[in-house]
Design goal:
The structure is a single chain. The protein has no helices and 26 strands. The chain has two domains: 143 residues, UDP N-Acetylglucosamine Acyltransferase, domain 1 (3 Solenoid), CATH 2.160.10.10; 35 residues, no CATH class. By secondary structure, it is an all-beta fold. The strands form four sheets. It has a nine-stranded mixed beta sheet with strand order 1-4-7-10-13-16-19-21-22, with no helix packed on it. Helices cover 0% and strands 33% of the residues.
Length: 196
């Protein structure tokens, strides 16, 4: 484990072996970071957030509680995972809201998924396994496994494989990754690996 000078890591956080936390990053209480994670400069990992193994949170990524991030996921520079359905500084009477005055909801990111630079995932959404969210997208609905979504609001424009390449349709219900040759099949509007 490597924690750079100037990083703020709460002593109640659990940090996996081989994880690196860079300058000005903050990891809050009860956060759980798996093995071999990389937390970039100025990134924020909120209280109780769970990151799997081999997760990268790039510079200035903001992962608010209670987000759950699967193994091998990538959170690009300046990505924001929100946690409040109805954000307000004050309640209807004008009194400033405090921690107990609202209920946090989280973003769930599946294993191997990638969230592009400056994208915003508006909780509560689920980003599927190996999905890709394009840079600058605003995700307001769940993203299926292997989907490539872009835009505001985000919409699916293609299917991608584990290598991140767009899949090529080879038949009505079959797709192939041009990078790896892996075969995927389409069933009920979703893409799944052919061996599952």
């Amino acid at each position: 484990m490597r924690i750079a000078a100037g990083a703020d890591v709460d002593e109640r956080a659990r940090i996996g072996a081989g994880t690196s936390i860079w300058h000005l990053a903050q990891v809050r209480e009860e956060a759980v970071l798996g093995r071999d994670c990389v937390i970039g400069r100025g990134a924020y990992v909120g209280p109780g957030v769970t990151l799997g193994d081999n997760v990268k949170v790039q510079n200035y990524g903001l992962v608010y509680e209670p987000a759950q991030v699967g193994d091998g996921a990538f959170i690009g520079p300046a990505v924001v995972l929100t946690n409040d359905l109805r954000p307000r500084s004050v309640d209807p009477s004008g009194k400033q809201k405090r921690g107990g005055d609202w209920h946090a909801v989280g973003v769930v990111i599946g294993a191997g998924a990638s969230i592009g630079a400056r994208a915003v995932c508006v909780a509560p959404v689920r980003i599927g396994r190996w999905a890709m969210v394009g840079a600058g997208a605003v995700v307001t609905e769940d993203v299926p496994d292997f989907a490539l979504v872009v835009g505001v609001p985000a919409r699916r424009i293609a299917w991608v494989g584990r290598a991140g390449e767009r899949l090529v349709r080879t038949s009505t219900d079959q797709w192939r990754c041009p990078a790896t040759g892996e075969i995927y099949r389409q069933a009920q509007g979703r893409i799944v690996e052919a061996d599952t």
